[in-house]
Design a protein that fits this description.
The protein is an alpha/beta fold. 42% of the residues lie in helices and 9% in strands. The chain has a single domain, classed as P-loop containing nucleotide triphosphate hydrolases (Rossmann fold, 3-Layer(aba) Sandwich), CATH 3.40.50.
Length: 316
């Protein structure tokens, strides 16, 4: 088994060396106004990210930034008691901010896979638009706002029953195979592992069914995202529904690119999108009905959360 801690330290050393030519402020300017995708798990954020990453104007770290977060042991969870995976501004000291930005800059590459730092200095742009998508970011907006004070956020939301049904199926697979597992042998948890992000209040789910776990995870994540976004200036975030993403991808990508300040690539005006790498079964808006009985029992939580989302995004 690879030594994750050693690998994390290697990443930090490499990032500091690779970006030593730039001052802390210069790195911040290079990563001005990054665009960060936020959503509950299984809401379609991988699909959105993979398609947006095709745009000339976006730079990514080549995927999700789990490796960067693992380089900082203090960012594993909210605290040593593992009360949640949520991070706020108190976790973002100046040293962590600078080191994290160095990691992002070192790993940044364009849609052709060409690293920013491999370009000759005279060919490097004065700033790049970093596109970032890592699932746990949904719990970490205050932290991210400290690392990137001018960040912009794209909030993706999905129909409650579709989203929760997808979570039920992914949790089932995760507990069987280890896929999607984020915490193995989580202290106090009554299952072999925890899948996806870890919201505050997770201990209240001990003894609950998978549908109850999935519904709580979906509802709490969306509540936290919206509470955090509504504390920011309204022009720093936009909202996108999964339905509009799959039904009119061209218009959706154009709107997100315009919000992000990058040119829109040639996306299809209609028709189907390719499957994302995390797709489990072929898309079908009625797949959730196989869990209809369990979801009906959770209707109050699902409907209340959907009403909250609708109210928050109505002006977008």
């Amino acid at each position: 088994m690879p030594d994750v801690r050693a690998h994390a330290q290697d990443l930090l050393r490499a990032a500091r060396a690779a970006t030593a030519q730039y001052s802390v402020d210069a790195v911040s300017r290079l990563l001005s106004k990054p665009v960060i995708v936020l959503s509950a798990p299984r809401a379609g954020s991988t699909l959105l990210f993979e398609q947006l990453a095709r745009a000339d104007g976006f730079w990514t770290v080549g995927g999700e930034s789990h490796g960067i977060f693992r380089a900082f042991p203090s960012l594993r969870a909210e605290n040593a008691a593992l009360d949640s995976g949520r991070l706020d501004a108190s976790h973002a000291g100046e040293e962590i901010q600078a080191a994290m930005r160095s990691c992002f800059l070192m790993l940044s590459r364009n849609h052709r896979g060409e690293p920013f730092l491999k370009f000759p200095p005279e060919q490097r742009p004065d700033s790049i638009t970093l596109l970032e998508k890592t699932p746990r970011n949904a719990l970490n907006v205050p932290f991210l706002n400290s690392v990137f004070p001018d960040a912009r956020f794209v909030y993706l939301y999905r129909d409650a029953r579709q989203n929760v049904a997808s979570l039920i199926e992914a949790w089932t697979l995760g507990l069987q195979t280890g896929r999607f597992v984020t915490f193995s042998q989580l202290p106090g948890w009554d299952r072999p592992a925890w899948c996806f992000l870890l919201p505050p209040g997770w201990r209240s789910l001990v003894g609950k069914s998978l549908p109850e776990i999935a519904a709580f995870q979906w509802a709490e994540t969306n509540r936290i995202v919206l509470d955090d976004l509504q504390a920011l200036d309204r022009d720093r975030w936009c909202a996108v529904s999964y339905t509009e993403l799959v039904e009119d991808p061209g218009a959706t990508f154009e709107r997100v690119c315009r919000f992000s300040g990058v040119d829109t690539p040639q996306f299809p005006a209609g028709g189907s999108l390719p499957l994302s790498r995390t797709t489990l079964t072929a898309p079908d808006p009625d797949k959730w009905r196989r869990h209809a009985t369990e979801l009906d029992a959770l209707a109050t939580l699902l409907d209340e959360t959907e009403a909250m989302i609708a109210s928050a995004v109505s002006a977008d």
